[in-house]
């Protein structure tokens, strides 16, 4: 069914690509001031794209950012304000300090535009309903004019995303010109498979496979020591958490989650477990809001431990991830769920 390497989940794909670059890279490049090890023309498929988070201690993945970025896309935003709260370095990519151009895929995918006042997403969703066998359900991201200015600091790395609805399962294909394995591959696969699952649930079909095709797959040389640690860990540790399926989600649900995200980001409100239980979204999305509340405490209560009761609201895998990323802010891991 699939031609090319196939992995059960993202972690296996991630470790395999990292191993290939670490042991068998084809080129060393020095593009735009970064020395990198590169392989060209990489493709892989993940059979369960819902299993999208790697649990590798040496990577210190930021699961709060991953959810925030997916929400940033879904809500069609391009503001530095929101995204740099989660990853301050992203502000450096912005020319005017206010907006991101290439990195902000949200406006291109989800913001209504010419000529029909619909977004690309609305058009492909309608196409998939009207003509399930379609080969046209593709959304274009990189734009030709992004290369007009050679000094453009932020050119989209993703060329496009395609949906294929076959046998009532929604497959997704991502096409990228370039991808940094350590940083970009994790965040991009997370966000794209999140959009895939969101779309499948809305269409009432199963989640199919996720395929990722990249022209230049590379690792910054500065990250190679961490990559070695990740690979050692990958062969010895079998850490695993159950996946949680996204429910059918409306745009109203997304707006509710986004409204809370903004309140928490600006420290204008707080979520205790009882207040969280009263938010009118599915438990899945409450667990996402618990991540944002966790991060509110990290940012806005400096030097203090995060309240244990909000950790109890997290998905067990997310608890492990935040404890791994912010160990000094999370009370002792003993007694936590596994
Ligand atoms: O020189 P260039 O425009 O390719 O530098 C941007 C780099 O950011 C990419 O090569 C890739 O390594 C990384 N990147 C990524 O992996 C950037 C974006 C933003 O579009 C992304 N994934 N989504």
Task: List the main descriptive attributes of the protein structure presented here.
about 350 residues, alpha/beta, Thymidylate Synthase, Chain A, binds 5-(hydroxymethyl)cytidine 5'-(dihydrogen phosphate)
Give a quick summary of the entry:
This protein is an alpha/beta fold and 338 residues long.
- Counting copies of identical and different chains, the oligomeric state is single chain
Ranges where pLDDT stays below 50 over 5 or more residues in a row are none
| First-last Cα distance | 35 Å
How many DSSP-defined strands?
7
CATH homology-level superfamily of the largest domain: Thymidylate synthase/dCMP hydroxymethylase domain
Share of residues in strands: 15-25%
Instruction: Name the CATH architecture of the largest domain.
Output: 2-Layer Sandwich
CATH fold-level name of the largest domain: Thymidylate Synthase, Chain A
Radius of gyration using CA atoms only = 20 Å
Description:
The protein is an alpha/beta fold. Helix content is 41%, strand content 16%. The chain contains twelve helices and seven strands. Strands 1, 2, 3, 4, 5, 6 and 7 form a seven-stranded mixed β-sheet that branches. The site of 5-(hydroxymethyl)cytidine 5'-(dihydrogen phosphate) (5HM) has 13 residues, from strand 6 and helix 6. The site of 5-(hydroxymethyl)cytidine 5'-(dihydrogen phosphate) has 13 residues, from strand 6 and helix 6.
Topology diagram in text:
Blueprint: E1 6-7, H1 10-24, E2 27-29, E3 36-46, H2 63-74, H3 80-86, H4 106-110, H5 120-130, E4 138-140, E5 158-166, E6 169-180, H6 181-203, E7 206-220, H7 224-236, H8 251-265, H9 273-277, H10 283-300, H11 308-311, H12 316-325
Parallel strand pairs: 1-3, 6-7
Antiparallel strand pairs: 2-3, 3-7, 4-5, 5-6
This protein binds 5-(hydroxymethyl)cytidine 5'-(dihydrogen phosphate).
